[in-house]
Write a structure and sequence with these properties.
The chain has 187 residues and is an all-alpha fold. Helices cover 83% and strands 0% of the residues.
Length: 187
């Protein structure tokens, strides 16, 4: 497989793992699950690495940069994406059991570090997203940015932003509007 597929597997695993941990587990358990997802992604990347140690390190750097860019999207991922990521991770882990080379081992170490950093970025982004949707920390610009970055259709985005803007002056209505945004984003 080429490095783009490796990057895709790592991104899917990280996005799915980040969503699952954020939605289902408390913050403490989310960090542990992110480390497991990062390890699984690292093992998959190690098994598929056919290039020399320099090429594997470069792919790990690119994966870390791409994962950091995808951190915002991971906060809005759906349950279906988490299921697909789990299937992809399982398939990659099965493939990883078949390959054992010295270059793959070196790639696993580099990828583990990058994936751990990316998982931390995903967790931070998810925490920031939840803080922005707390009435006590209300910031209209951040809430609008979260809605715009989501995969929702334009009509739903407009309705959510309109509801938040209309409720901004009333704390009770603001709480209800932010709860509607959380529900729409799957949080």
């Amino acid at each position: 497989m080429n490095k783009n597929v490796l990057i895709g597997i790592v991104l899917i695993a990280l996005a799915g793992g980040g969503y699952y941990q954020f939605s289902v587990k408390p913050a403490q358990e989310a960090a542990a699950a992110a480390a497991e997802a990062a390890k699984a992604a690292a093992d998959a990347a190690a098994a598929e690495a056919k290039a020399a140690e320099e090429a594997a390190a470069k792919a790990a750097e690119e994966a870390a940069a791409a994962a950091a860019a995808a951190a915002t999207d991971a906060a809005a991922a759906t349950t279906e994406a988490a299921t697909d990521a789990a299937a992809a991770t399982t398939e990659a882990a099965t493939d990883a059991a078949a390959a054992t080379t010295e270059a793959a081992t070196d790639a696993a170490a580099a990828t583990t570090e990058a994936a751990t950093d990316a998982a931390a970025a995903v967790t931070d982004a998810a925490t920031d997203a939840m803080a922005a949707l707390d009435p006590a920390n209300f910031d209209a610009a951040k809430v609008a940015a979260l809605i715009d970055a989501s995969a929702l259709d334009d009509a739903t985005k407009a309705a959510l932003k309109s509801g938040v803007d209309a409720a901004a002056a009333d704390p009770v209505k603001l709480g209800e509007a932010l709860a509607a945004v959380k529900a729409a984003l799957g949080m």
